[in-house]
Design a protein that fits this description.
About 15% of the residues lie in helices and about 35% in strands. By secondary structure, it is of the alpha+beta class. It has one domain: Gamma-glutamyl cyclotransferase-like (Hypothetical upf0131 protein ytfp), CATH 3.10.490.10. The radius of gyration is 14 Å and the shape is globular.
């Protein structure tokens, strides 16, 4: 099955200034500030974890990244590996799902890496989301 060529919504270590940003350097087009509605952001061990919000009230802030056509398949494989996503394997660290994200110019569908249901349930039950929906969260106010 051929994957759809969607942009990616990044909200953590792939963003500019973060440790995995170099993985995308030279292989992308536009980076647009964006928001993923209906999601909550949690602090993982050195990285953030987005969880689809059952109440639909949360939002995660990040960037919508358009990937250049030539390296698209390679970027997709690299990001899947980084996020421990394997199609059809629910035991991975993340799931890759297509979701609508909002930008100042409108809504676009994008690939987003989110916590799988079992991990999401644990986070929702035991952890507090980052209140700003942005990572890194910075000092508490």
């Amino acid at each position: 099955m051929t994957e759809r060529r969607l942009p990616f919504f990044v909200y953590g270590t792939l963003r500019a200034g973060q440790r995995n940003h170099g993985l995308l350097r030279g292989r992308t087009g536009a980076w647009t500030p964006a928001t993923l509605p209906g999601a909550l952001l949690f602090q993982g061990p050195g990285y953030p974890i987005a969880v689809l919000d059952p109440a639909g009230t949360g939002a995660v802030h990040g960037d919508l990244v358009d990937v250049a056509a030539g390296p698209y398949a390679e970027v997709l494989a690299d990001l899947d590996m980084l996020e421990s996503y394997r199609p059809g394997d629910p035991a991975g660290l993340y799931l890759r799902v297509a979701r609508a994200v909002r930008t100042a110019r409108g809504t676009r569908e994008a690939w987003v890496y989110v916590a799988p249901p079992e991990r999401a349930a644990g986070l929702l039950a035991r952890a507090r989301p980052l209140p700003t929906g942005t990572w890194p969260a910075g000092p508490a106010s």
